[in-house]
Amino acid sequence: MLEESFQDQGSVKHCHGCGTDNEKGLRIKSYWDGDEGLCTWQPQPHHCGGSGDIVNGGIIATLIDCHSLNLAIAHAYRAEGRPIDSSPKISYVTANLNVSYLRPTPIDKSLQLRAKIVKLEGRKASVRCTLSADGQLCATGEVVGVRVARK
Amino acid sequence: MLEESFQDQGSVKHCHGCGTDNEKGLRIKSYWDGDEGLCTWQPQPHHCGGSGDIVNGGIIATLIDCHSLNLAIAHAYRAEGRPIDSSPKISYVTANLNVSYLRPTPIDKSLQLRAKIVKLEGRKASVRCTLSADGQLCATGEVVGVRVARK
To answer: CB–CB of B58 and A100 under 8 A?
Structure first.
């Protein structure tokens, strides 16, 4: 993890999930780990669900969505042999997000997200993502992203 | 809409999506409209996605998740002929959340969520939810919730 995060190499500053400058956002950081994307994130108390000791399902969905799309974008730049955010800029938008919640996600633990591209077809990228706490799998997600042009 | 919202009748105060007292949360309000649940919500600028003029996909997932579960809970109380939050308390947790993003959701519009219970089977409730802005359908979701005991 000597490299800068995908987000710090990019120019998306305001996104609620991954924008580097959104002070009210989650500001996740994603890194290469071989061919996979890795993200470690610490929930805050206000990210809780119905019970104060677990993470809200929507927060989990946001983490999985943004981390997976950031991996799809980083992968597309890498496949073209050029740095993240070089021109022409690459972006992905989410077409479908499917999250399965396997067990309560504790709010006081550091969460680990691991994402992997499982299918590339035309402009579509399918990404599978796991969310674990203390080595225990808490949620899994599948994200279908569609590549779009970005100014 | 003369009735209090489901959330204001309940005692979940801190949930990031629907807790009435979470100042950093989304604080959605859900109401009966016949057999369906209705929620109107105004995004703020920091809820944006990669582009500043659209709503982040994770925020949309959070709205759909919390609104749908609140409907499942309200429906369960109504089916038992008793007020929301009466004892024994009823809660639902999300087992699966599936969101399809049909078009960009504008950040400067009021969003309308409409949720409907489509299947009840044992402890499971399946809820279908739409999210529209200015009458245009922007996203659809399916949420599977599981009923759990609550203290």
So the answer is: no
Closest Cα of chain B to A105: distance in Å?
A: 12
For the question of whether the overall pTM of this predicted structure is more than 0.95, the answer is yes
Interface predicted TM-score (ipTM): 0.96
Q: Which of A14, A16, A23 sits opposite B59 (nearest CB)?
A: A16
Residues of chain A with pLDDT under 50: 1
Confirm if B84 and B9 have CB atoms less than 8 A apart: yes
For residue B76, which amino acid is it?
A: A
Q: By the 8 A CB rule, do A69 and A7 touch?
A: no
Name the residue of chain A whose CA is nearest to B96's CA.
Answer: A100
Tell me the CATH number of domain B6-149, given options 1.10.10.10, 3.10.129.10, 3.90.1720.10, 3.40.1190.20: 3.10.129.10
Q: Would an 8 Å CB–CB cutoff place B73 in contact with chain A?
A: no
- Per residue in B66-103, pLDDT (tens digit) is 999 999 999 999 999 999 999 999 999 999 999 999 99
Judge whether A58 is closer than 8 Å to chain B, CB to CB: yes
Residues with Cβ < 8 Å from B128, sequence gap 6 or more? B115, B116, B118, B140, B141, B142
CA nearest to B98 within chain A: A98
